[in-house]
Design a protein that fits this description.
Its EC number is 5.3.1.6. It catalyses: aldehydo-D-ribose 5-phosphate = D-ribulose 5-phosphate. Belongs to the ribose 5-phosphate isomerase family. Pathway: Carbohydrate degradation; pentose phosphate pathway; D-ribose 5-phosphate from D-ribulose 5-phosphate (non-oxidative stage): step 1/1. Keywords: Isomerase. There is one protein chain. It is globular, with a radius of gyration of 17 Å. Strand 4 and strand 5 form a beta hairpin. The chain is about 25% helix and about 25% strand. Helix 1 crosses helix 2. The chain has a six-stranded mixed sheet, sandwiched between helices. It has a four-stranded antiparallel sheet with strand order 8-9-7-10. It is α/β, with parallel strands linked by helices and about 220 residues long. It folds into two domains: about 140 residues, Rossmann fold; about 70 residues, 2-Layer Sandwich (Alpha-Beta Plaits), CATH 3.30.70. Bound molecules: ribose-5-phosphate (R5P). Ribose-5-phosphate (R5P) binds next to helix 2 and helix 4.
Length: about 220
């Protein structure tokens, strides 16, 4: 099975976590796009969605799914999103598509985080995928110097402006042996909006598409 077919399979598999008459949180990326497309089949059973990006909002609306402002919603039953890396502890690196901050906010509101990936995303230790860090533009050089002190090699993602008007530094060669501590340490640097480690609030369920079908971790 090729990677796109795996993404499609795992996107559809997440439908079983969607409860009727609820508002669901929706992430961003190529895997979630398959979930959104599958969601269209059951759109009349849900109240609507809260989205984590302009791109996902547009896709949801195009399929006739109502998109709510997070400030008008008290709780979300589930949040469904992909990841760039995920461990057996359900810790993740996210933000390859620059949507990490809104993803972290929307997922924080949800009772259950359902992570959907193909098996290429499973890793023993986080960090082979360069860690995305969203930064206030004026702080870019300062934050980069601080990230070097942590042992990383930050690279400015040229030409990318996030949905929040900020920039992204992708941190290579970072040894993330303790994801929860690293998540806190990087978030404490002045000028960092958030970083792409999702460990303080990891996933609750990880669905992985393999050649043998979708398995639940
Ligand atoms: O900012 C983007 C998100 O964190 C995505 O969920 C992540 O990059 C995975 O995307 P994809 O499903 O396209 O591999």
């Amino acid at each position: 099975m090729d990677q796109n077919a795996k993404k499609q399979a795992v996107g559809r598999a997440a439908l079983k976590y969607v409860e009727p008459d609820t508002i669901i949180g929706v992430g961003t990326g190529s895997t979630v796009n398959h979930f959104i497309d599958a969601l269209a089949d059951i759109k009349h059973t849900i109240t609507g969605a809260v989205s984590s990006s302009v791109a996902s909002t547009e896709r949801l609306k195009a399929l006739g799914i109502e998109v709510f402002d997070l400030n008008s919603v008290n709780s979300l039953s589930i949040y469904v999103d992909g990841a760039d890396e995920v461990t057996e502890h359900k810790h993740m690196i996210k933000g390859g598509g620059a949507a990490l901050t809104q993803e972290k906010i929307v997922s924080a509101v949800a009772k259950t985080f359902v992570c959907i990936v193909d098996d290429s995303k499973e890793v023993g230790v986080l960090g082979d995928f360069p860690l995305p860090v969203e930064v206030i533009p004026m702080a870019r050089s300062y934050v980069a110097r601080e990230l070097v002190k942590l042992g990383g090699d930050p690279v400015y993602r040229e030409g990318v402006v996030t949905d929040n008007g900020n920039v992204i530094l992708d941190v290579h060669n970072l040894s993330i042996v303790n994801p929860r501590e690293m998540e806190k340490t990087i978030n404490n640097i002045a000028g960092v909006v958030t970083n792409g480690i999702f460990a303080l609030r990891g996933a609750d369920v990880v669905l992985v598409a393999t050649n043998e079908g979708v398995v639940t971790r």
